[in-house]
Input
Amino acid sequence: MPIDLEAIRRLLPGRYIDWRPSLPSTMIEASRLSAAGCPHGAVVGADVQTAGVGRFGRRWHSEPESGIYMSVVLRLPFATETLPLVTLALGLAVTESIQKTTGVACDLRWPNDVLVGGKKCCGILAQWEPPAIIAGIGINVNHPSFPDDIRNLATSLRIASGRTHSREQIIVGLLPAIDTYCGILEAEGREPILRMFSKASSYVAGRRVAVDQGDSELRGVTDGLNSSGFLLLRDDHGKQHQIIAGGVREN
Ligand code: BTN
Output
């Protein structure tokens, strides 16, 4: 079923929300909207994406009318260095709203994967497009299954819980949660976000992981986050590394 946009608008009056039956990627449309001067918090969503993008230029599987595919234009007074913290704040917002509206318990894998039962059910892509940040969020809500190439890595809230969930309710919980966590970052700085992310994520400390660095792979045990929001990793020789980007997986 297509999303019930009117139901969302009724519960979030005053919020600019543009929702299309189909888009190549909501990131492209949100960039356009941002360049045209849309307000802070404006949302572009689609019931299906024909060219959804993930991190590192990967494709984002966008099953029709089953997931939440949306981009939010954030106009916040943050310097470029704050972008990693915004990513963490977005992860906290997604986790909280999924847990509150569906009762499904989530984990966070640095920097921006939301996991359910060890598999990914949401990805976040934060793009710095001055003066805005475009926050792309993809949540696998009612996907019945996944293609072979990602079946072992991806899940949906439906697969994890054995029942379907209202995309509208998740969105109505998520947009105010994004405001809350970004507001905390703006008003109180990095420390509360670093603390809350570290508490909500089983990956931040004491977890044996491999980090894909493109041409090489780092292995070790996670050792917390630094003040920039980067992951610290202690390798088997005791040397500490700062992970700025890269795919983290359990090892
Ligand atoms: C990741 O690789 O984990 C990030 C995935 C981000 C996917 C979302 S879906 C909505 C928005 N539009 C896109 O094309 N990508 C993001």
